[in-house]
Amino acid sequence: MWNGIEDVFMEKTGQELPPNFFFALSSFASFCYMKTDKSDLKRLVALGDGRTEKMYEFLAPIIGLKYKHISYGAFERALSASIVEINKANPVVLGALDMNYLPYFRKLYHQGESIPFHYVLMTGYDDEKEEVYVYDCGRTEIAAIPYLDLKDAWNCSYPGLSKPFTLCKFDFENINDDIYRICKEALSRRADVYLNPPVGFIGYKGFEKFIIELKTKWNDELSKEDFNTIIRNLIFFFGTVPGFPNRLKGSNEKDATPFCGGFGKTALILDILGKKYKDRSFLAASKIFYDTGFVIEEITNNLVDYLLDINKNLDKTTDLLIAVKDNLYQGLKILKS
Questions:
Q1: In the chain, % of residues over pLDDT 70
Q2: What interhelical angle do 147-154 and 75-87 show, nearest 10?
Q3: Which of 57, 164, 183, 189 gets the most CB atoms within 10 Å of its CB?
Q4: Exposed, middle or buried by CB within 10 Å (0-12, 13-18, 19+), for 125?
């Protein structure tokens, strides 16, 4: 959802961004815990805010981004609107897309597993060949998506994240090209809310409430099925790319991406900028967040064991969650000092 915008930012400013810069800064440390008894997911637990529009809303004024998300009722209308922007030399972000229908992901293409949290930067099209041309994460070459595949990939949604056939028009106004200041301001704002939460279901207060209720109330308030659904959702979003560990899919193959709750991304950014600008607070917080990422990986393994009936005692998981809560508090406090 951010990589294409980062590309345009770097082209306009001549700056090089650390990996996952905008994504991490727009989502990190925005903990939330809410009871949602009327939904299929009875308890919402989020380490970071992964809602695309909320992430843009948070970071846009800091970096000077002007944007507009538009959802269309039909593929043809969405494609036509995208082509209009391309003809004006304006790339657009398409998504969310289901990676199951993107042909250049050969291991995922038409394998039946829906992965509906992907975004691409559309830069061109060919009506005769009936395909669009995009830049995708980690790829230096332009990729082609046939219209028929794009229609299937684009026709996906997830409550609170994206509707089918959504695109984002964007540009930069009064662009802020000071990467160090962008990082400091974004994390300072996140720290303010986490350290001094205005309501009890967010920040460290929300984290404490989640841990207490997991330990003392969930078994009484929730059915086994609801409990397991919440645990699965928590694991799903711990992934660097949202998804389930291979063990939950019946495979002992090593996972392609870590399950560290986004801490590794932020730690790397702080390490890079801390060394470049000789900022000791960045380096100290980076070390804390790196270590916390490993704690999240251990929590993930414990929760997978729970779902697989290998271990039904979550006491260790509770202790590890306390460590995550406290580490996040400590790291953000250092960044505010």
A1: 100
A2: 110
A3: 183
A4: buried
Q: What is the DSSP string of 79-143?
A: HHHHHHHHHTT--EEEEEE-GGG-TT-TTTTTSS-----EEEEEEEEETTTTEEEEE-TT--S-E
Q: What is the pLDDT of residues 197-252, one digit of tens each?
A: 999 999 999 999 999 999 999 999 999 999 999 999 999 999 987 889 999 999 99
Secondary element (H or E) of residue 66: strand 65-71
Q: What's the Rg (C-alpha) of the chain? A: 20
Q: Residue 242 has what pLDDT? A: 81
What is the mean predicted confidence (pLDDT) over 262-272? 97
Q: Which of 239, 230, 228, 214 is nearest to 297 (CA)?
A: 239
Residues 195 and 336: their CA atoms lie apart, in Å, by 10
Q: What order of strands is seen across the sheet that includes strand 143-146?
A: 65-71, 166-172, 92-97, 118-126, 131-135, 143-146
Q: What is the pLDDT of residue 210?
A: 98
Query: What's the pLDDT score for residue 166?
Result: 96
**Residue among 9, 34, 32, 11 nearest 22 (CA):** 9
CA 181/CA 186 separation, integer angstroms: 8
| DSSP summary character for residue 20 | T
Q: How much is the mean pLDDT over the chain?
A: 95
Characterize the bridge pairing of strands 92-97 and 143-146: unpaired
Using omega within 30 degrees of 0 as the cis cutoff, is the peptide bond preceding 96 cis? yes
The widest CA-to-CA distance across the chain, in whole angstroms, is 62
Residue written as tokens 């026709």? 155
Contact 64, 176 (CB under 8 A): yes
pTM of the model: 0.92
